[in-house]
Write a structure and sequence with these properties.
8-stranded mixed barrel, 5-stranded mixed beta sheet, 24 helices, 59% helix, elongated
Length: 645
């Protein structure tokens, strides 16, 4: 036999060292059957001893079976203990080698003992011995079918004894043994087929398991894998007293990439994000879904430094086949055990820190801190109170005028939501609106408040408009737009007198759906205003694609315009943009005469702020209108001082 052939033959008796997954599967398969195997084997030993009682010396029918059964019981106890925590890797290989050795030793001892009984009784007794050996070996091989090496060891031990019995036996014995040898060889062939099928099944199961835990687009672990890894990390940290960090990463500006360059470009960006996260090598990354990623960071690494590096790395341009894309990333971190000691809570804390990072400055990272815990509890209190609230009774509207300073007249009133909770007292919109959006109550709240605003509007002059704020969730689907349309039509008010305000950052989350929704509302006859302009993803292409009639310049620019030339230049640029695109423009947050005069000098006409009037209840509108007829608002307020305090 050639050397390769010999190696192949010897390989039949050994464990496959290059496949730990197969070894673990073989261990689990044998562990499920070992007790049945040992029980049948013990019963057969007792049966053979009983059949030869009185025909052989007492020690030969009691001693060997007693020793063998004792060894079997001890081995069974060991297997029960090991099956509670199945070995992995090298431990699994070692356990299977022990199975091979134990199978050889046990088979040899049983064969030797049975042979010592051969010829001590009648021919029927000898046939019983052959039956015992044959059926025992066949059953053991069946139980060891997933472990090919053990099956070959059993067959190899049995064959020499078959030759021995053929050489000394009677014709009937010889035919019985020959028949058994044929069946044994056929069983080996069938076991080979069964073993290959088992290996293929293990390989397929492993592949399916890998796919179930892997994101197919990026190749990163998916949310399911992330949660499992996080729970395992928590258990290890609890046992050893360790620390680690959990990060939640959200891409800023990803939706516009999808909308402008196509979903193929969006997929390419996600794959490149995954590659960059892996190449940084600062943690264990996973894709949680959409444009959200997770990160598990080991103890001893500076989370602030990680956050800066990842934000900078993900903020670099993406060179795609469709063109160049530019996005950013915001990150929230939570540290075990400071933030929480449960996997689910750690993710919630990291997500809350991400919310703060986005609210403070997009493209930055924030680590969950003790003050966030207090705010999180406050948000939880707000959500619980909001879920129990009588929305129609507890919520009301205040109205703030939008002034045409050129003519000195009121052109519209903006409806502003207010909540007086019997549990929490007065709750700021900055607190209850995000909670209402996350809890799914925002649409009910919008429907109730819009109904109230339209009812109030019935008593206004026909030239007066209503400006009403919508959440991105209100127009996230056709049913939301249909509900708004129904309310406007049912009110009987001319839709052209209604201005729906939507925030720039909210629309950019899904530009395609936003455009579809706003186009439907625009077809109704209402006007659309883009609120807080300049603080989100400002882009000429967005304005070109959205059916917008008006821009509202965010108050953050107004508050600095008298001291900061850059803020004033931004306002000038937005005004020029509005003139070229035939859009109306409103500036918010006017508090001083100086701001009013400066902005009027650069072309601002529509203004809103405390200089003219604080938000007021509906009952005060008539009196305000009467006191602020045409031309009366032009000289309102004192130079450099807040008005209407």
């Amino acid at each position: 036999m050639t050397i390769p052939g010999l190696r192949h033959l010897l390989g039949l008796y050994d464990i496959r060292q290059n496949d730990p997954v197969l070894a673990e599967a073989q261990f689990r398969a044998f562990a499920r059957q070992v007790l049945i195997l040992y029980a049948v084997l013990s019963f057969n030993l007792v049966g053979l001893a009983f059949a030869h009682y009185g025909q052989a010396p007492f020690w030969s029918i009691v001693g060997p079976p007693a020793v063998l059964i004792t060894v079997i019981v001890i081995s069974a106890a060991v297997w029960v203990h090991m099956s509670r925590r199945p070995p992995q890797g090298e431990e699994a290989f070692a356990s299977l080698r022990i199975v091979n050795f134990f199978a050889f030793l046990l088979a040899l001892c049983i064969a030797v003992w049975a042979t010592t009984l051969f010829g001590r009784g009648s021919p029927a007794d000898d046939i019983h011995i052959l039956f015992f050996l044959g059926i025992t070996v066949m059953f053991c091989m069946q139980c060891l079918s997933q472990l090919r090496s053990a099956s070959y060891i059993l067959a190899t031990v049995a064959l020499p004894y078959c030759v021995y019995y053929i050489s000394i036996g009677e014709p009937l014995v010889k035919m019985t043994v020959v028949n058994y040898v044929v069946v044994l060889l056929g069983s080996l062939v069938m076991h080979q087929f069964a073993y290959r099928d088992f290996c293929d099944l293990v390989s397929l199961t492993e592949e399916n398991g890998r796919l179930a835990l892997t994101d197919p687009l990026t190749g990163l672990p998916n949310r399911r894998s992330f949660v499992a890894r996080l729970e395992e990390t928590v258990e290890t940290a609890l046992a050893k007293g360790g620390r680690f960090g959990v990060g939640v990463i959200d891409l800023d500006g990803f939706k516009p990439v999808n909308d402008s360059l196509g979903h193929g470009a969006g997929d390419a960006v996600l794959r490149e994000v995954a590659r960059r996260l892996e190449s940084v090598g600062l943690g264990w990354p996973a894709r949680l879904g959409g444009d959200e990623f997770g990160l598990i960071v080991e103890d001893g690494i500076d989370l602030d430094e990680i956050g800066r590096r990842i934000c900078a790395d993900l903020g670099r341009p993406y060179h795609l086949r469709e063109g160049q894309a530019q996005i950013g990333a915001s990150i929230g971190f939570a540290v075990f055990p400071d933030a929480a000691t449960r996997a689910e809570t750690l993710v919630d804390r990291a997500d809350f820190a991400l919310y703060h990072a986005k609210a403070r400055r997009r493209g930055s990272s924030t680590c969950f801190a003790p003050e966030h815990e207090a705010e999180l509890r406050r948000h939880a209190d707000v959500e619980q109170a909001l879920r129990r609230a009588d929305l129609a009774a507890e919520f009301h509207l205040l109205y703030q005028p939008i002034i045409d300073v050129a003519d000195g007249r009121v052109e519209a009133y903006e409806a502003l939501a207010r909540w007086n909770s019997p549990i929490l007292g007065s709750v700021s919109p900055a607190d209850f609106i995000p909670v209402a959006e996350r809890s799914g109550l925002i649409r009910d709240l919008t429907r109730i408040l819009l109904t109230k605003a339209l009812e109030t509007m019935r008593g206004w002059p026909v030239e007066r408009r209503l400006s009403f704020n919508l959440s991105a969730h209100d127009i996230a689907g056709p049913e939301g737009v249909d509900a708004l349309t129904t309310l406007v039509v049912a009110s009987g008010i001319d839709p052209s007198r209604i201005v729906f305000e939507v925030t720039e950052s909210g629309l950019m989350r899904d530009l395609v759906d936003a455009r579809r929704a706003l186009t439907s509302l625009k077809a109704l006859g209402v006007r659309i205003a883009l609120d807080d302009f300049g603080t989100g993803y400002s882009s000429l292409s967005y304005l070109q694609r959205l059916p917008v009639d008006r821009l509202k310049i965010d108050r953050s620019f107004i508050s600095r315009c008298t001291e900061d030339e850059t803020s004033l230049n931004i306002i000038r640029s937005i005004l020029d943009l509005c003139r070229h695109l035939a859009l109306d423009c409103v500036v918010e947050g006017i508090e001083t005469i100086e701001q009013k005069r400066l902005l009027r000098s650069v072309g601002c006409r529509s203004m809103q702020g405390y200089l003219f009037q604080r938000p007021m209840p509906a009952e005060a509108i008539a009196a305000f209108d009467a006191a602020s007829g045409p031309g009366m608002i032009k000289h309102q307020g004192r130079e450099g001082q807040p008005a209407a305090a």
